[in-house]
Amino acid sequence: MEVSQRLMTSLRKGFLKERRVLVDFMDEYAEVMNKYTQTEVYNGFARGHTGLSITYGFGLRDRLWLEDGVYCFDEEERGKVRRRG
C-alpha cells in the first residue's frame, strides 16, 4: 500500500497545483493502479461523467470531480466526507 500512497500524494499535489485533468493520463493512471495496487480506480471523465473515484477498500474512497469549472477533491471514509477543495 506504500506505493499507492506515494502515487496518491503526487497526484493530489498535481491536481491542486494545475487545476486540470488530462483524460489520457487519467486512463493510464486508472489502468496502472487497477493492475498493480490494491485499489480500484474508475475514470468517469473518459466516459463523459464529471468525476474520478479511487476505492482503497471497504468504506474508504477518494473522489475528484469537476464543479463549475473547478476540480474538487474529497476523501470519504465510512460514509463521512472530508472536504479538501
Provide a short characterization of the protein structure:
The protein is α+β, with helices and mostly antiparallel strands and 85 residues long.
Give the tags:
globular, alpha+beta, 36% helix, 5-stranded antiparallel sheet, 85 residues, 36% strand
Task: Describe the protein's architecture and organization.
With 85 residues, this protein is an alpha+beta fold. The chain has one domain. It is 36% helix and 36% strand. The chain contains two helices and five strands; from the N terminus they run H-H-E-E-E-E-E. It has helices spanning 2-18, 23-36, and strands spanning 40-43, 51-57, 60-67, 70-77, 80-83. It has a five-stranded antiparallel β-sheet. Strand 1 and strand 2 (51-57) form a beta hairpin. The longest helix is centred in the first third of the chain and has 17 residues, at 2-18.
Topology:
Elements (H helix, E strand, L loop, with lengths): L1 H17 L4 H14 L3 E4 L7 E7 L2 E8 L2 E8 L2 E4 L2
Antiparallel strand pairs: 1-2, 2-3, 3-4, 4-5
* Distance between the ends: 24 Å
Helix content: 25-40%
What is the H/E order? HHEEEEE
Specify the number of helices: 2
The number of distinct β-strands equals 5
How much of the sequence lies in strands comes to: 35-45%
Globally, the shape reads globular
